[in-house]
Amino acid sequence: MKKIAMIFLFVVSSGAFAEGSISRSQVILEVSEQSPELSETLKKLDLSEVGEAMRAGRHTGIGGARLMPYTFLSKDGSLTVTIYDDNGKIAVDVRNN
After folding, report:
1. 89 vs 14, 17, 92, CA distance in Å?
2. Number of H helices, E strands in the chain
């Protein structure tokens, strides 16, 4: 019985979040509310126009919303930029590919 309950829980909860895409302009707008300086920096970086984010399932109450972390590649593919929430503050991690 425990095994069936665990399988059911996994199947039900696995659809709560999925990969989704997010536009760079949407992230810049969202970030600008908390960190105008970071928003301006993101505008200047040569990032792809579409990045990756977690997408909340419709049954979560915030259905379809994109959640941090947001990940973008530079247009030349040399950098990965991740924007995330660090205890209520927006932070950025930049890595060479």
Report:
1. 28, 22, 10
2. 3, 5
DSSP annotation of 69 reads: E
Q: Which of 25, 43, 94, 19 is nearest to 83 (CA)?
A: 94
Q: Which amino acid, one-letter code, is at 44?
A: K
This prediction's pTM: 0.74
Average pLDDT, 10 consecutive residues per value, the chain (97 residues): 48 58 94 92 94 81 80 95 91 93
Q: Are strands 66-73 and 79-86 parallel, antiparallel or unpaired?
A: antiparallel
For residue 71, list its beta bridge partners: 52, 82
